[in-house]
From TrEMBL, chains A, B, C, D:
InterPro entries: DNA-bd_HTH_TetR-type_CS, Homeodomain-like_sf, HTH-type_TetR-like_transc_reg, HTH_TetR, TetR_C_22. It comes from Streptomyces cinerochromogenes. Keywords: DNA-binding, Transcription, Transcription regulation. It comes from the Bacteria. This is TetR family transcriptional regulator.
Length: 216, 216, 216, 216
DNA sequence: GATGAATGAGGATTCATTCAT
DNA sequence: TATGAATGAATCCTCATTCAT
């Protein structure tokens, strides 16, 4: 269902090229961010990677941060499209193990396919000082996790839910870093470890027992 | 927060002066790394912070990375001196909860007192591409954790132990980031969460139950 | 005895070279400002003209404006040193013609020797929007003229004196522009015209008549 | 004039539209020149201000300078249309005071209504090096003033007349700058001062006396 | 050993101008 | 014509590093 050939005679023919350039630039930026990190990435390097002149880059983005923001936005969008359900509140009937396992699998798959995501989450190298792009991504993701947890921790205060969400995200990012830096069986093993950490962490919080209909 | 009134009345050996300079520079570097992050830190800024000229800095360190390496080394050394026992193999009789709790407390205390440590662990912003300083620190720390875990997982393969160590470090770093970015009660809460994550993660691996001599 | 901080009045040996460089850079800046105007002058061009690298320029000046400011300051200083009397309140006994004639001669001489002065007065091309350097110069000069006029217009309000000062400066600058763009006899003629304009303008304001002790 | 259905190889329609575009662009250019000055004005900014694309601008003007030239031309034209008489040789019977007063009033009014004029006269920031547009404007204006003065200084040499014209223009520009940078009563006061300067300057040159049916 | 000067490549960004559609 | 994309040199400025004193 691509829009390459037939009918689109209407509003902007000009922007077709522009759209393409933007995509191209974002892809190049992703590449460069992954390779050198956000802080060290230079706009000239991005332009070079995209095979265009610096001026062209600035025709579409006012600065480096804007590139990261747009990249993050698109990533979030794509994620939502592809794995929307993974972010939806979980059916309480679903065993925790399964819920987490599938969520981690999905996110890991996405992050493995889009390693920039990690580079952006990682942030601009300044601990505690998150810039726009990063902050935006972070806020969105945390929100999603909070929503998820909300259905698992019905009795917890919002502050607790938020804290738990932050811990989960932190654990996930830590796991992701390990996953991304390994391959094959070892990578799979790290995926499993990440799941285990999360499952065991959340299990008591939810008042459920894995594989046990137990109560407290 | 630099030199206020420093008057050494005694004649020092040249080494002594050099040592003082180095300490001065490292302290300045720590400050700057924390403030701006490693990537964005400039050697000129470090020299300025130390109150010396750029030339002087390069008299003691061949480049920026060397500063980070030396800083990491000293940090490790200091850590070992101060909390050596926390890194020593644990008495199997110690309950896991207690062992982890005390280790996390010690490390968190150290990292809170020396925020550079985190900045260095965080690495030069290049995911997957750890530079010297980082790699060295990392290797040392991982080694320590492996040693620790070794006594807790006597039946595991080295690969498993190593993997578990990496996961623990990752979890710890994630927790540390959260701890450092909060204060007061919230910070304490995050410390506790970090412990919980680790405890619950390691508990089944060790074949023990917290406070329970029971077995699976 | 080593060189621990002794606050003896010789804090700079190093700065000898630096001082020279600064003078060199200011001279180059003067040259470039004259040639291309302040707005169009580039710091790289100034550095090139001075025969140094851009970095060197920025070791001494934080930006282009600072160069202009320092240049203006030095110019004012030099002017005061060389022609201080021309700026001092005039002996009321001095005939207006003579007072103005000598003041214009002195200033014209100075401005002819230091054409940058004009370029700086001319300002950054944006009417009404004077930047630091310009504003500073302007304020100082206006102040001088007001002082001069004060003794010639004892009965005028400060607002009138200020207005008259602005007009005089404007006339002088206009004359200077013409003087600088001509040479030889024509230049001399323009100097004379400038004097004439000012004399005739100020004459009735002072309640005196040139060469006439006569009527009102 | 704005018809559509026509099959001429050279329809006037084009011209009409082109004229409108040009006017649009010139107006935008005027706005931008006034706001940022000629040197700092960017063609992209002009195009944006005019609501067209950069390419369109270059369809009508080969470069930035050409815009300024055309703007100057139109301004001169408009001026001539509106205040033609002010530029015409003066009836020798007219008292100088009145002649100058009315001329200054007219020009000031025009310049106040069209502040670009000043921005253009001010020139491209390069003292002594007037670019095309500026030079053209300047030459035209000087010519007018020479014509004016011709009738007032019948006995002077052309060189003298030219010199006087330049001085008058300089004085006028200086006055204009002051006028434009003030408002209300103060502005009016500066207008009067400008007149006074010119009147007193020209009075003896013309061999007439203000308010006097003078003698030659 | 210490200093401050010097370097020059590189970074982000802008802009007059041209080109393809 | 009009458009918006494209260019690339030029702008200001920074920084790791080296040099002369």
């Amino acid at each position: 269902m691509s829009d390459t050939t037939e009918k689109e005679p209407q509003p902007r023919r000009r922007q077709a090229r522009g759209e393409r350039r933007i995509a191209q630039l974002l892809q190049a930026a992703a590449q460069v961010f992954c390779t050198t990190g956000y802080t060290a990435a230079s706009t000239n390097a991005i332009a070079r990677e995209a095979g265009v002149s610096p001026g062209t880059l600035y025709q579409f983005f006012p600065n480096k941060e804007a590139i990261a923001i747009e990249l993050g936005d698109r990533l979030m969008h794509e994620m939502r499209e592809a794995y929307g359900e993974a972010l939806a509140p979980v059916d309480p009937a679903t065993p925790l193990e399964e819920a987490i396992g599938s969520a981690v699998d999905r996110f890991m798959a996405f992050n493995t396919d889009h390693p920039v995501f990690f580079a952006l989450m990682h942030g601009p190298d300044i601990p505690g000082r998150m810039a726009e792009a990063h902050a935006q991504l972070h806020t969105t993701v945390i929100g999603r996790i909070e929503a998820l947890l909300g259905s698992l921790m019905p009795d917890a205060t919002p502050a607790d839910v938020s804290r738990t969400a932050h811990v989960c995200l932190g654990v996930y990012k830590a796991g992701l870093e390990l996953v991304l830096s390994h391959e094959g069986a070892e990578r799979a093993a790290y995926v499993q470890e990440t799941k285990d950490v999360l499952i065991r962490y959340l299990e008591p919080l939810t008042g459920r027992r894995v594989g046990n209909p137990a109560v407290d």
